[in-house]
Amino acid sequence: xxxxxxxxxxxxxxxxxxxxxxxxxxxxxxxxxxxxxxxxxxxxxxxxxxxxxxxxxxxxxxxxxxxxxxxxxxxxxxxxxxxxxxxxxxxxxxxxxxxxxxxxxxxxxxxxxxxxxxxxxxxxxxxxx
Length: 129
What we know:
The protein is of the alpha+beta class and 129 residues long. It has a domain at 3-22 and 58-127: Alpha-D-Glucose-1,6-Bisphosphate, Chain A, domain 4 (2-Layer Sandwich), CATH 3.30.530.20. The chain has three helices and seven strands; from the N terminus they run E-H-H-E-E-E-E-E-E-H. The protein has a seven-stranded antiparallel beta sheet with strand order 1-7-6-5-4-3-2, covered by helices on one side. A hairpin with a 4-residue loop joins strand 4 and strand 5 (66-72).
C-alpha cells in the first residue's frame, strides 16, 4: 500500500493549531485543493471537491493530538486521512498529515492527492505564519 506524509512546523501553540485543524468548518481554509465548499445537509457535512460531492467528517482526540478526516462518496465508503499534531518547545507545533492509497483509489487520483497534500500542508504553515 502506498502512503505519503507531509510535515510542517508552525510558530503557534498546540491548542490553537489543534483547535483550527480539528474544526471541520475550517477545512476549506487550508484544504483548498480538495474542498471547494462545505455544506451541512441533514446534520452531515458534504464537501464539493474536484472529484465530486463527498461526505466528510472529522474524528479528533485532543489529548492524543490525533485528527482523522474521513471522506467518501457514500458514508459507507469513506476513507481516512490522518493528522498528528505535536507540541514542540517555544510554543511551536508540528503537524504531520498522512494519506494512504486504498484499493478504491485509482493511480491517477493517487498522484493528484500526492500533489495536493504538499499544497495543503503549505496552506497550514501559511495560516500560522
